[in-house]
Specification:
This protein is mostly helical and 174 residues long. It has helices at 5-18, 30-36, 38-75, 81-106, 111-138, 160-168, and strands at 25-28, 142-145. A two-stranded parallel sheet has the order 1-2. The two termini are 28 Å apart.
């Protein structure tokens, strides 16, 4: 969520008058953590592999349907009405199978979406636990996600490496 300059100035003014600048802030780069934390990389790679295999299966089904549709079209004059009707019914079934596969596997609540959550949620939980632990140990009042729209921050406030070190030490558990 991006803030307008006026909103940002209003928030800063409010913070100054409320004494919030006496608090300790930091930020992390969640994209960097996601790309450098090996467990995250492994989960993402496993998901991409599953996604690619599902896409290959989907494309295979689409090609089978298209081949059948092309066959019906090219042989329509040669087929008896009964045989043509039979092949058209088969084509309709294939089209329904393709749509069902697309919905069940690739849809917003499909198996692929659920598998992504299953693979990545434990990693996200570990990352959040590491951020919390570093925040508590270092005495931070707030930790922001730098990849979510901070326009400028002092590099000294970046605790991304500390979080990565915590994650890689193996001590951060859910």
């Amino acid at each position: 969520m991006k803030l307008s300059k006026l909103s940002l100035i209003s928030i800063i003014t409010l913070f100054m008058f409320s004494g919030i600048f006496a608090q300790k802030f930091a930020y992390v780069n969640s994209q960097k953590i996601s790309m450098e934390y090996q467990e995250s990389v492994d989960a993402q790679n496993k998901f991409k592999e599953l996604q690619n295999q599902t896409q290959v299966n989907y494309e295979k089904m689409v090609k089978e349907y298209q081949a059948l549709a092309n066959e019906i079209e090219s042989q329509s004059l040669l087929l008896s009405p009964e045989k043509k009707q039979e092949k058209m019914k088969l084509a309709q079934q294939k089209a329904m199978e393709v749509e069902r596969f697309k919905y069940e596997k690739l849809g917003p609540q499909g198996e692929l979406y659920k598998k992504q959550a299953e693979l990545l949620q434990p990693v996200i939980d570990k990352i959040n636990a590491a951020i919390k632990k570093v925040g508590e140990e270092e005495g931070y009042d707030m930790i922001f996600d730098g990849s979510a729209g901070i326009l400028y921050a002092n590099p000294g406030m970046d605790i991304t490496q500390k979080v990565l070190d915590e994650l890689n030490s193996g001590k951060s558990k859910k």
